[in-house]
Amino acid sequence: MTEHTPKKLFIKTYGCQMNVYDSDRMADALAPHGYEPVQVMEDADLVVLNTCHIREKASEKVFSELGRLRDLREERRANGQDLMIGVAGCVAQAEGDEIVRRAPAVDLVFGPQSYHRLPELIARAHNGAKVVDTDFPEEDKFEHLPAAKKEVTLARGLTAFLTVQEGCDKFCSFCVVPYTRGSEVSRPVEQVLREARNLAEAGVRELTLLGQNVNAYHGLDARGRSVGLGELCARLAEIPGIARIRYTTSHPLDMTDELLEAHRDLEALMPYLHLPIQAGSDRILKAMNRRHTRADYMRVIERIMAARPDMALSGDFIVGFPGETDADFEETMQVVKDVGYASAYTFKYSIRPGTPGASMDDQVAEAKKTERLQRLNDQINAQMHAFHRSVVGRTLPVLIEKAGRQPGQIGGRSPYLQAVHMDGPTRLIGQIIPVEIVEARNNSLIGKIVTVAEPNPASVIESQAIAAHI
Ligand code: SAH
Ligand code: SF4
Ligand code: F3S
After folding, report:
1. 247 Cβ closer than 6 Å to some ligand 1 atom
2. CA of 9: how far to CAs of 78, 83, 116, 142, 295, in Å?
3. Is the dihedral of CA 399, 402, 408, 413 positive or negative?
4. What is the mean predicted confidence (pLDDT) over 121-142?
5. What's the whole-number mean pLDDT along residues 342-364?
6. For 57-61, 69-73, 277-281, 451-455, which range has the lowest pLDDT when averaged over its residues?
7. Whole-model pTM?
8. pLDDT exceeds cutoff 90 at 344
């Protein structure tokens, strides 16, 4: 270790949106200590890999990256310079010391609950110690993490993630999350509102609330009353500037009436919901410890559609869970068609050490998993394209987010999270405007602006009023 303090920071993020949010918080926590983010790993004095443990491939990627970092450090040392290497996130939490054993170049290892201690951990590592911090502390890390700075947030754009809940108590038998993220914790309402107001003031128009089980949210308000996600969304929708709210990921058992009422009543709550079922066969759902049957799930879908008839759905699916037969898999295919998902993430089952699934008999052969995944993907792709085509001819409110690839073009998102490209002036960035969808491409839509609103707050309200009538 050299004496000089590394000042250039590069964080590489793997895994879910919660890691994306966490990486930004780590950068915020280090900014007051003189660390500036850089775009290229080779320029950094401190590299943090914010890792994901969800599937074997995800966690193995980390070790190959660590190999490259070790080489980079060797080069640096040959030139009398240095590099500090940190591993954060879910692999850090799951493997702790083991990481330093497998990859001795690593200086510090810290889990998702330690980010507010990062400056202190770095200082300890500077003294030459290998630092491993994977405790689940009592204190509230969010209370200790600095709020996002306005100028930083602005650079990050019009849409922002906001973690409102962490951890999971569900213990699906395939999943590492309850072990890597700990048990369910909800952030207090006022803390969430404060952060959302900061984001809104920095120009953010759309919030995506995050949590491993976000709809299990039950934060305390200023009077000590427990507030559900529906009420939280209503409070967030009152913040000037916040026009759209989304949330992810939800568990079917936590779709409460209160939340469904929010979907019915809140215009800001977008009609696109990620609600994983994982598999269609009750036998497999039971082995997965999902604690709901296929019929339970279909009833939840009915309630959602009753509250918000234009809701589009997405999901997660695992193929080849231990014991899954061809007949079980056909039930998954059937559920995909019955629900009519507009999109979905699909995965081959990956054995995770320490989870109950890992020691189950009847592991499914890799070739079988590949074959099933292919069929499932074909079905979901067909449905996704059909969904995109179904909005052609409609006029949708689009949040304009950025300039397009071609000069004179702009791009944004429909309420259903579809990317929409159109001709238009960049002064519309930040506004929600009615756009007629004229063409569906594979992964995006082409639109035509119906009325060009002027860039003042009144026109934003006007265009939302138009949107409400579509
Ligand atoms: N908290 C979210 C996401 C968990 S991880 C939720 O409860 O839905 C995201 C997805 O990864 C899961 O929904 C599941 O489909 C998939 N997944 C989790 N563990 C897996 C494993 N061992 N093998 C394959 N896919 C897995
Ligand atoms: Fe994992 Fe299940 Fe918890 Fe989702 S609900 S994070 S899949 S254990
Ligand atoms: Fe991966 Fe951890 Fe997210 S395991 S999916 S980074 S919660």
Report:
1. no
2. 21, 10, 16, 21, 49
3. negative
4. 83
5. 96
6. 451-455
7. 0.92
8. yes
Cα–Cα dist 389/384, whole Å: 9
For ligand 3, atom 7, name the residue with the nearest CA: 177
DSSP 3-state helix, strand, coil percentages of the chain (rounded to 5)?
40, 20, 35
16-44 burial code (b ≥16 CB/10 A, e <16): bebbbbbbbbbbbbbbeeebebbeebeeb
pLDDT tens across 426-458, in order?
A: 999 999 999 999 999 989 999 999 975 555 554
Question: DSSP letters of 155-178?
Answer: HH-SEEEEE-EE--S---TT--HH
CA 440 to ligand 1 center in whole angstroms? 30
Atom of ligand 3 nearest to the CA of 18: 3
With vertex at residue 54, the alpha carbon angle to CA 157 and CA 93, rounded to the nearest 5 degrees, is 90
Structure confidence by residue, pLDDT tens digits, 179-217: 999 999 999 999 999 999 999 999 999 999 999 999 999
* Residue 233 annotated as part of some ligand binding site: no
Q: What is the DSSP string of 26-54?
A: HHHHHGGGT-EE-SSGGG-SEEEEEE--S
Backbone φ, ψ for residue 223 (5° rounding): -95, 5
Q: Is the pLDDT higher at 108 or at 470?
A: 108
Residue 148 near residue 7, CB atoms below 8 Å: no
For the chain, what is the total number of helices (H) and then of strands (E)? Answer: 16, 21
Nearest ligand atom owner, CA of 52: 3
User: Could you tell me the domains of the chain?
Assistant: 7-133 (3.40.50.12160), 141-390 (3.80.30.20), 395-469 (2.40.50.140)
Q: Provide the pLDDT for residue 180.
A: 94
pLDDT digits (tens, 9 = 90+) for 268-303: 999 999 999 999 999 999 999 999 999 999 999 999
